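Deliverable D5.2: sample structural annotation.
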Amino acid sequence: SRASAASTICAPAPTAPTLSAAPTRTPLEPDALLETMAGFGNSGRMLPEQVWDREHPTDYGWEFGEGTGGATPLAWSMAGFIRLAHGVDAGEPVETPTVVRDRYVEREARPRRS
């Protein structure tokens, strides 16, 4: 919904990354994915190139769910977040090339040939 996409973008940065969705949603629903991505942003809400996904300590001091020292912000990470927010707001994926929609969406709607 428009309100949830906007509130995710404008909400205060969480203190810890959100690794799972609320129990009322599945983790792969677009709004849950948007919330998860937002949780990995730094204090300026910029998304890092890489997020450490292991719970064991490192010699570099990386912490679970935190950026690994790679590029922050990373343009394509931020663009992916914005496109996902736009899709959540629109209620469907945006900027899907016609050839992709024809092959993977429209084909599923047609009966299969025997």
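Annotation notes: The CA atoms of residues 36 and 105 lie 26 Å apart. Residues 2-109 form one domain.
The annotation will be released with the project's public dataset once the embargo ends.
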